[in-house]
């Protein structure tokens, strides 16, 4: 049984027309009481009545404004006035999250679901216990919107019952600030515990339909308001677009059919399309570079350098229209942008490819994604001025300067070496074999108005550091790069190949496996004999490079450490090869090769067995989009002191810092 119910918005989330109406009723009651109060002299009474009257007027105006917004919203959803029957163009998606250990929810504390990005907006569900009731909400966080923005939505929240007794509640809502909206009294707490929890967990789904947006449009490259160079008008909501029939018909089978069936008609209207998206779609159709999403207005107001503010603000909306209106050229433009420029995650790109029917996307994307990922990390540290520094004395960055990457501890050190600044990258593997090596490419940078960079190759074979002994003169560093007594140094380390690190290998993939293999994968100088069809069945990347080259007996893989690849293959072939010494390298290869089964096994190990510190787990969770691991890490943070205990928070990845700050807001 499904209960479909629409309820009033909770007062802690939104002030709506019903709430304002009750305010008016209360004010009018106050007026009557004061009019009947003979103890108050006329002057005082008139003054108070005037104040109340002004308040009443303000509330009535607010109601009028809110009602007009609701009327406009309702009008937006009426499709009967449309004479351009666009095939289902709603911007719609479903958020699904399993809230764990719900019985231990604290009173009035929001518990977040997994964040997802849809149409350049981050969305997630939230649950809260309040006065023995369960509250459910949908939170909206736009990615770099303009100062004033809005998203008109239709929300459908569902609590999944154990016996198909789902509860569904719906509401229309216009988001105008980053906030949550929903139902503070979605279910009685006791009923939720008895009928909806399964092993202490609650499954929640939220279906979001975006009706219309404002404040997200990039600066327009061209107008579509010139009637003298057009022969038809397309009206999308209240916006008119003057275009050429013949050109649109040549680029879209939908428009070709529409204009053929209505040869004499000069104007068509549709309420089922977002006018912002349609404008960008037309710009792309007319050859403009519209699928990059520069939010120029917002960047200018913030004084940002525009070339560093390229966003993915419109590609999904344009791709939706290109798919529904059947415009192959626009779809190709979107596909090229997603492959070459977009910063969306691989998972999000694959979701879009499946939803909008991008041909050959999975193969192309898997190869492009793999080629872009290498075993690399960046450390950033600061050295504060110390007048007691003696020549030739090594100075480490700070007490938390040591960082662990790929089961190796790394630290940046500096030295005044004969009046020259020397920068040293120190490397110390965790529990290596007697003989080991790490082949690297090092890029050292002093941060200033004009960054100073030096690169070099180095093979570590001892617990020592590699020094750039004459990075720059000490005097130049003091005059040009030390700001307020602080020198900022960055080190980008690319690991090419390792030996002697990690646990003992369980099985071989050498020539002894020749009889049970049909392809050789060459990783640097190491050959791996494997089954082409088995790997292709486990990974879209291997399917693309192996089945597409069926005649090749050897295929070279680049950007992979052969040591990591060996452990990765062991996991893929069912061995227990994951431990704290191998998990990061295996995870990097699994992500690069789009092998989700190995990614899941790495996450299971990190959640259930790993002894790595919390900050390292958080780093891996954010880098590889491991939602379960992230949720576990966040659940372990219960106080502000726990956040402060996470080492060098200010030096962590911005995504991790943001997640911790978000957590701290709830804790406060």
UniProtKB/TrEMBL annotation:
Residues 230-286, 517-573 form the BTB domain. It holds the Pfam family MATH. Coiled coil: none annotated. SMART domains: BTB, MATH. Residues 88-208 form the MATH domain. Gene3D superfamilies: Apoptosis, Tumor Necrosis Factor Receptor Associated Protein 2, Chain A, Potassium Channel Kv1.1, Chain A. This is BTB domain-containing protein. It comes from Caenorhabditis nigoni. The lineage of its organism: Eukaryota, Metazoa, Ecdysozoa, Nematoda, Chromadorea. The gene is Cnig_chr_II.g7785.
